[in-house]
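**Protein of interest**
===
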Amino acid sequence: MGKLSTFYFLGQRENGECASGEIFASDEENARQQLRRQGIRTALVRQETAIRLGRGKIRCLEKKWDEAKLVAFTHQLAVLLRSGLPLVRSLQILERQEINPSAKAVLASMASGLIAGHSFHGILHSYPQIFDSTYCQMVEAGDCAGDLGSALENIVEFRSRMLRTKRRTVSALFYPFTVLAVAFVTILFLSIHVIPKFEAMLTAGGSGQRLPAITRGMIAMSAFLRGHMLSLLLGIFAAVAAVSYFLRTIRGQIFFGRIALAMPFLGKLFLMQNLVIFLQTFGLLLKHAAPFTDALLLAADSIPNLAMKKYFRRLADRVRGGELLADLLAHSPYMLPFIHGLMAVGEETGRLSPMLLQASDALSEELNGALERATAMVQPILVLILAAVVATIAAAMFLPMTQMLQLSNF
């Protein structure tokens, strides 16, 4: 037997736990064989240089990728495959350029799995925190059809559109919440630090005149906030903690999901956003020859709103029992009439997949237009609200000063 060397490894056990450390072997292949016998799927095996991440700690291979990173990876892999490179070579190229150690380990493990003879979609199923069921199903369909590049391009188009819609939604909601938060902090600062000094000045003036109602109200609010600040902060903290805990439960997510969909105006935007994801996912899975009920179930699982997800999963079970999807959606609270019409025609004519994709495109455009109109409408409303707040504070401060000036003239 040749001289044994020390190899450092990073991998995962069969139960999904991370495994890392060192092993003595004659070469890298011998090290991998020993690890396989121990039930460890390796991603990185290196001699002499330890794979240490952060402050000497080893992170888990299966760290979740954000949506932008997943889209970038899929796009780059599709481009490499379209250029004629083999899949293993493409993954190795992506691994070499990757700077994130955890992602680098995942890519190395995927390339090693392909070399060992595993299918690509089978390898993706090993990383459920990174590649969801819809992603794996579409890759499996493209892989079996011998056109993995097209499947990856469809995933990129779908995920990119969803990412843009999500960013528009967040952007549309960020502005009003930011303005309201600034207004709240400003009022709080004035109530605690400015109004007490103003009240002292009025008291020192000793005019004896009854203050205007708006001024008395502002002074009373300031006194209440200063006297109960600790209780208010503790109450807010407790409420936030309780809501956060409730949101981590299935019941809480369903509850707030129903509230979001029932909100005036915003509820329709949330409904449209979830429907776009459902329709696009369902249409692409059918396009890649996924079984109808499986595609419907995966599309239901892709819906972010848990109340809608639960509803469509129940529909999938009834469709599996022989009922028509169009009939079930006819009076659904989570379906728009024109979308239902397109789906009914598609189901009758056997062209459901293109109808779903057309409906998704149309609904996505309508959602983007609604977000733009909402943003344009909210901005002047917020300006008016802020102007009203400033005018109220100014009136509360200047009215008594005006009374004092009038009295001094007599």
